[in-house]
Amino acid sequence: QQCPISVVPVSDAQVKTLRDSRMQLAVDLLRSVVSQDPTQNVFLSPYSIFSAFQLLFFASSGRSEEIVRKLLHIPDNLTKNDVAGIYALEREQNERNKNTTNKYELDSASKIYVQQDMGIRDCVKDIFSNEYSSVDLKHHLEYTREKINEWIERQTRNMIMDCIPAGFLDSSTSLLLVNAVYFKGLWKSEFFEENTSL
C-alpha cells in the first residue's frame, strides 16, 4: 500500500501560506491564554505548538486529520505532502542555524510517543524518524516515563527535570505529544527569578 505522505518540494508561496496559518494559531492561542487572566504576563511558543501538532496532522487521517487541519488553519489548497515538505525545509534551516554563532540559542523539538501496537504507518515513522517513537505504554510505564523525561532533559539542557511525574501515565495512555523549548539569551528587560514560575 502506498504511503499517504511524502516530502515534496515547495514554493515560497506555499511556505508563506503555512506561515500565515501558524500566525493565525498564534493569535488564537494568545487570545485564549490572555482571556484566562489578562493581568498576567504570557510567554509561549506558538511555533513550537504548531510544529508539535503538525506531527499529529502527519499521522492522522479521515476525521482526525480534518480536525487537526482546522485547528492549525491549514487551508485545503495545501496538501499533507506540501506541509511535510515545508516541515522538512524548516527542520533543515533550523539545523543550519544551530551551527551559526548568535547572541542567543533557541531550540524547539517535538516528539510523539505512541503505543507500539497503534496504527501509525512505518513509512510515516521513516520520514519523521526523529519525531516518532514506538513505546510499550501498556507494560513498561515507568521505563517509558523515564525515557521521555530524559529526552526532555536533553532538549532543555537539563533545565526541565522530571517533567512527567510518577503516576501521570497509566495503562490507558496510548499517545503522548511532547514539545520542549530551550532558550538562552539576554533579555532587553531582565526577569527577576523570584517572579517567574513554570
Automatic annotation (TrEMBL):
<dbReference type="InterPro" id="IPR000215">
    <property type="entry name" value="Serpin_fam"/>
</dbReference>
<dbReference type="InterPro" id="IPR042178">
    <property type="entry name" value="Serpin_sf_1"/>
</dbReference>
<dbReference type="GO" id="GO:0005615">
    <property type="term" value="C:extracellular space"/>
</dbReference>
<keyword id="KW-0646">Protease inhibitor</keyword>
<dbReference type="GO" id="GO:0004867">
    <property type="term" value="F:serine-type endopeptidase inhibitor activity"/>
</dbReference>
<dbReference type="InterPro" id="IPR036186">
    <property type="entry name" value="Serpin_sf"/>
</dbReference>
<keyword id="KW-0722">Serine protease inhibitor</keyword>
<dbReference type="Pfam" id="PF00079">
    <property type="entry name" value="Serpin"/>
</dbReference>
<protein>
    <recommendedName>
        <fullName>Serpin domain-containing protein</fullName>
    </recommendedName>
</protein>
<feature type="domain" description="Serpin">
    <location>
        <begin position="22"/>
        <end position="197"/>
    </location>
</feature>
<dbReference type="InterPro" id="IPR023796">
    <property type="entry name" value="Serpin_dom"/>
</dbReference>
